[in-house]
Design a protein that fits this description.
This protein is mostly helical. Helix content is 68%, strand content 0%. Helix 1 packs across helix 3. The longest helix has 20 residues. The radius of gyration is 16 Å and the shape is elongated. The chain starts with a helix and ends with a helix.
């Protein structure tokens, strides 16, 4: 499967409205590393660093490794929220989800 990791990282970063600097900070990787990945489009990256970038972007690793736009989600903020919830302890994620649902119910009742 042919894919361009750098292009996919750049696209996901831009969708999330993140700078390379912010992605570097969130992932714990250097700005030079992020910049080089995007610029050179190398696929030579450790799985550990790929996961760090995917986690910082709030996307599944498969999205960064995809070669097709059809595999990309059209709701990046929703996907990021879901990804963040999935990385929390189950009871905490359930509590946050319940509170969010209650907020949405209140909002819908006010319409």
């Amino acid at each position: 499967m042919e894919f361009n990791l750098g292009d996919n990282i750049r696209a996901a970063r831009i969708k999330q409205k993140l700078t390379q600097e912010k992605l570097a900070e969130l992932s714990g990787l250097s700005l030079n590393f992020i910049s080089s990945l995007e610029r050179t489009n190398t696929n030579n990256i450790s799985i550990k660093n790929a996961y760090k970038i995917a986690d910082a972007l709030g996307v599944p690793l498969t999205e960064l490794l995809s070669n097709s736009d059809k595999d990309k989600v059209d709701y990046p903020v929703t996907q990021r929220l879901n990804h963040m919830l999935l990385n929390l302890p189950k009871d905490l994620a359930e509590n946050y989800s319940t509170e969010f649902i209650n907020i949405l119910r209140i909002h819908n009742q006010q319409k």
